[in-house]
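The following record pairs a protein chain with its ligand, glyceraldehyde-3-phosphate.
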Amino acid sequence: MDLLSFYPDEQAIPSSVKLTSDYEQREYLINGKMLSWHGPMNPVVSPVYIREGKEYKQKIIGSTPLLTSTEALMALDAAVEAYNLGQGQWPMMTVSERIRHVEIFLGKMREKRQEVVNLLMWEIGKPQKDSEKEFDRTCDYILDTINALKELDRRSSAFVQEQGIMGQIRRVPLGVALCMGPYNYPLNETFSTLFPALIMGNTVVFKPAKYGVLLVRPLLEAFRTSFPPGVINVIYGRGRDTVGAMMETGKIDVFAFIGTNKGANELKKAHPKSHRLRAILGLDAKNLAIILPDADLDNAVNECLLGSLSFNGQRCTAIKIIFVHQAICEKFMQKFCEAVSKLKPGMPWDAGASITPLPEPGKTDYLKNLVEDAVQQGAKIMNEQGGTTVNTFFYPAVLFPVNDKMKVYYEEQFGPVVPIRAFAEEKEVIEYVLHSNFGQQLSIFGKNSKTIAHFIDTFASQVGRININAQCQRGPDTFPFNGRKDSAEGTLSVADALRSFSIRSLVATKINEENKKIIGNIIRNRESAFLSTDYIF
Ligand code: G3H
């Protein structure tokens, strides 16, 4: 298979996915104003190469502003001012009013679906169906967040009485949030922290991911016009020039970050008063699949294929190592490699294409190196053409048998390399999980309930989610999403995120006639936004 032949020439690109706009982006959003940058720009290089005669050229689709610490600090000041020590218009607003602003944004966002989906394909090489799914899932997430907040508010509108004291407990914002997302879900993962942060009354500085940056541009105007000035500020540039400077001021109260644990650690350390910083982090993972001897092989193969190779393995939840019981290893391997050989390479917009170009510069070299290291230590590439590299294409490599001398045994490959190990005894798998630095999820495939139950009880203290006869995944988004060890800090789900970006505050008083009268007046006359029994429908 000639991977080069999958890169198109200009004429072969369907008009529906062609980028029409000029994507030299100079705008950034601070304090409700769209500012224009005249300094250095960062080219946005697509993972897609275009054939020109006999040559192949990587497509440059635009550029983004390389802002400096000066602009980052301006954005931070705008967010600090809009929060105004909790006295700003946004944090003081009623929940229903804040919901109204988010609904306005959502309406405007939906109008930009096609443009954002096209940019997802061009910027990060995500297949069209997955790009559409990411957009729709994000809109659903925002809508679910609104509904979860209504529910939370309804529950908080009641008074509690205990030991002669009555009180009302509500959730209030934390302050200024810095939200940063990853390149593999640049819309969904970022917005799944950004919107809970906003809707709970925090003000935000949002810095888009390293790749998947331009796709925020069609939404900038919607941000500007849907929220009061300073509530949402959007900046661009290198993390080391912008984010560190903001952290060092100590003015960030919430740090929402999806990336590496190394990066998160460094940034957290830059905050002068770390006890004032709440961190919500989605970090590295090395999720494993365990295939037991009685597993339904077709299902295990299908789920492991999706789990390890959808979006070329570039999911934090991807299955990144497979342990197969030796009794069925040969059969599993044969079926798995057969299934891999049916995956179609292509451009993100090609129907049915799932092996698409990788967006990170140097990524194919890194993966090649990982495979070579494993081969040197005794692994074989089990599938035809496994590991073939052409420009930004990396054909999936199935490696077997892997062992603890190989880098791929521990490192998160975040790409289309599938390491497989055969095991004879359960303790081999258990040792791996117990001593792993990561603890996000794992998948168990089998039928014997006793064996599965034993694994469940062993692993419940090790990972955030145990999947039975199914791949690892984040969804449904109402389920808690977290991790242990180096994999995460805090829990996200539609409802949990609202808690993560807020803190409880309560009004309490001794139950006596005078206090009842005061509280009654405040409520009847609607004198307070906090102390209220208003019910949001
Ligand atoms: O990259 C991490 C994503 O949160 C994974 O989400 O399991 O729905 O692909 P997913």
